[in-house]
Specification:
It is built from 13 helices and 18 strands. The chain has 408 residues and is an alpha+beta fold. The strands form four sheets. The chain has a nine-stranded mixed sheet with strand order 1-2-10-7-12-6-5-3-4. Strands 9-8-11 form a three-stranded antiparallel sheet, with no helix packed on it. The longest helix is centred in the middle third of the chain and has 15 residues. The radius of gyration is 26 Å and the shape is globular.
Length: 408
């Protein structure tokens, strides 16, 4: 065998993608999105230095503290007693007078769904447009005093950790089969053992991507803000539970366990194999046959999943007045921040989903409405009659805000 042939037959080790890149040339990933999805997404962590070059936080710590006082905001404070290694969790809303009394170190304030409250924070999400929008859950913002942390833990969803202000030290365990047992002496799900393989300090504009299941631990080097862009990742149990509930709600009462082939029982107390076969037959009658029925269920489920609240209907003008103002007055309808939309092609046309509700529409209409943060006269004019009907129904349901409502 020639040397050249032998060399060709030898296995050349695949090059392992770098765990750290500079993103300044191709923000926010430092590479084309297709490369990131191929090499990193749900496969390995990635630290992107300068993912957002020159980043300035659109939110201040004082803004976040004010939001944590709101009744409907989902907020928590995690405090750590280092001497005793004790952790305390408090849930909001918090009184304003609490914050001046907090210590100067070792605590963290976390607020979920900040993108639903702050338009400038929501404006970051188009930077993640390489992902399906319905997969992005929320932007959680945390403020940590020096030494503040929530402990070593794992998340069961993908997360992008963008450093917005100050500096945070991140340690991760990117090894194979890391220990994942939880401590049983704290109410938080903290890891009993944590063996970091990497240690970085992130500054403003740096971003750490973590796939599900990677142990990590962040500690504030100084007072800092961190934005966490998290994904919707319903568990199999959540999917099954909602699927079964939907099947049961839609089931015909006439569909029942039947045994017209029953033979005399050898033992009247035995549940035999024939009975179990009939049980399976009865359950199979409840399947969602066809792609469209399954799509209807999932589209409704995923646009409702982990919703922090409901859209709020407001006064709606007569439709003729609305259409006149869209066409002649230059107004635009703005999507409610709690409105979640997605669409799917069906056998005929498409289905637009909005917070669980479905609308049968032409594909072009479903795509336009789902992808638009605002509906102006030009977009409205481009819709079919069914699309315009859907927009007005969505306005009545509270998915859009009429300009007069926003001024109040």
């Amino acid at each position: 065998m020639s040397t050249a042939v032998a060399r060709q037959r030898r296995k050349v080790p695949a090059k392992v993608p770098s765990i750290e890149v500079d993103g300044s040339e191709l923000p926010p990933l430092g590479m084309p999105p297709a490369d990131f999805l191929r090499d990193y997404w749900q496969k390995r962590p990635l630290l992107v230095r300068n993912a957002f070059p020159g980043f300035e936080s659109p939110l201040s710590p004082e803004d976040l503290a004010g939001l944590a006082c709101e009744e409907l905001a989902l907020s928590r404070i995690v405090m750590h007693d280092r001497e005793r290694d004790r952790w305390q969790l408090r849930t909001g809303p918090f009184p304003e007078e609490l914050f001046p009394t907090l210590p100067h170190h070792d605590w963290t304030l976390l607020v979920q769904d900040v993108d639903k409250w702050d338009a400038d924070v929501a404006a970051l999400l188009p930077q993640f447009g390489f992902l399906p929008r319905w997969r992005i859950d929320d932007v959680m913002v945390s403020f940590a005093a020096p030494g503040g942390s929530v402990g070593a833990h794992v998340d069961q969803y993908d997360v992008f950790l963008l450093q917005a202000q100050g500096h945070r030290r991140w340690q991760i365990d990117a090894g194979d089969n890391p220990p994942l047992a939880f401590r049983d002496d704290v109410e938080l799900k903290l890891l009993r053992e944590f063996r970091p393989t990497h240690d970085w300090v992130l500054g403003p504009g740096d971003m750490l991507y973590l796939p599900p299941g990677v142990p990590h631990h962040g500690v504030a080097e100084d007072a800092c803000l961190t934005f966490s862009v998290g994904m919707r990742a319903p568990s199999a149990a959540e999917l099954l539970g909602d699927y079964v509930d939907t099947l049961a709600a839609e089931a015909d009462e006439a569909l029942r366990y039947r045994d017209p082939d029953l033979a005399p029982a050898a033992d009247p107390h035995e549940i035999d194999d024939a009975a179990m076969a009939r049980v399976l037959e009865a359950l199979n009658l409840l399947r969602m046959d066809g792609r469209d029925r399954l799509s209807d269920w999932f589209g409704g489920f995923i646009t409702r999943y982990r919703s922090p609240g409901e859209v709020a209907p407001g006064p709606v003008p007569p439709r003729i007045e609305l259409e006149y103002q869209l066409e002649h007055a230059g107004i635009a309808l703005h999507r409610h921040p709690l409105s979640r939309m997605a669409w799917r092609r069906m056998r005929k046309g498409a289905r637009l989903f909005a917070n669980g509700e479905g609308f049968a529409l032409p594909v072009a209409d479903a795509r336009r409405i789902a992808g638009a943060a605002t509906v102006d006269g030009a977009l409205y004019a481009a819709l079919s009659p069914a699309g315009r009907d859907a927009v007005f129904a969505l306005l009545e349901a509270g998915h859009y805000r009429f300009p007069a409502d926003e001024e109040e």
